[in-house]
Amino acid sequence: MDDFSSPNFKSFFDVPGSPANRIEPGKRSLSSMSPSIVVDRDGDVRMVLGASGGTRITTAVALVIMRHLWFGESIKQAVDASRFHHQLLPDEFSYEFGILSQVVQGIEKLGHKAVRNRNRGSIVCAIARLGGVLFANADYRKGGDVLGLD
User: Fold this and answer.
1) Which residues are recorded as binding L-glutamate (predicted)?
2) Is 50 annotated as a binding residue?
């Protein structure tokens, strides 16, 4: 039920309730779920990924896609990399251990409150296809593993 909001209550992820997401008959909750299939210009699947973790899901999925496709990191590097997040409310930039201190200081110089995230944040699992070969990674933040078949 945490996907819905109730007046005067914050969600498990410390997000204030929104009137647009109140519990009402026949209503579906708003969700951060963003299972993604990324295709190239020829329509061939390059990546399939998804995540858990409430309001941090969208940021985590976007960061993994960018790190893999734009910056050329392996799917393991992209999923395992330190992450950051800002969701407007609360008004703070949260970041994981491993984000460069220069980045955090730069964010603070811009007037943002930076808070080191002490929980595991969002958990991403991803599969990438490179040259007809599939590569996968299960986020170390939660445990689990990936298997392959020949």
Assistant:
1) 3, 31-32, 54
2) no
